[in-house]
Write a structure and sequence with these properties.
single chain; about 140 residues; alpha/beta; 4-stranded parallel β-sheet; 5 helices; 4 strands
């Protein structure tokens, strides 16, 4: 029987947005965030203990400089990897990496109005919606 153990991992507090309602008070990275090697050791421990799904959240996971190295490592170790992102940092290269490594992409969006998104600190609604369409077309 295959385990279906999963973990939601806030891999960084760093974020490129300043949402007024952020429950993790994201912004700057924590001083004691795990290094790449420490992160890989945690992935090894998760694997050893029967986990096979990782959902990376944050802050904004895509802002972490070693994010794709970490995702690749998890993927190579048999994990199904998912991600919650604010969608602002999606570009063609990221879309290709999503297709290669990410099982599920969740994009947070809090209003269908550009003005409301800006008031909440969420960034450009239209850019995120364009990225959602690109993501859908890339699958």
């Amino acid at each position: 029987m295959t385990n279906n153990l999963s973990i939601n991992w806030e891999i960084t507090k760093q974020c490129n947005l300043r949402c007024a309602y952020c429950r993790v008070s994201a912004g700057l990275p924590e001083k004691n965030e795990l290094t790449t090697e420490q992160t890989k050791k945690v992935i090894d421990l998760l694997k050893k203990n029967g986990f096979n799904y990782i959902k990376f959240t944050g802050g904004e996971p895509l802002i972490r400089k070693d994010f794709w190295e970490v995702v690749s490592y998890a993927h190579k170790n048999g994990f199904k990897v998912s991600l919650i992102t604010n969608g602002v940092l999606i570009n063609d290269k990221v879309l290709d990496l999503f297709k290669k490594y990410i099982y599920i992409v969740g994009i947070s969006l809090d209003s269908v109005r550009h003005k409301t998104n800006m008031a909440l600190g969420r960034g450009d609604y239209q850019k995120v919606m364009d990225d959602v369409k690109k993501l859908k077309d890339k699958k």
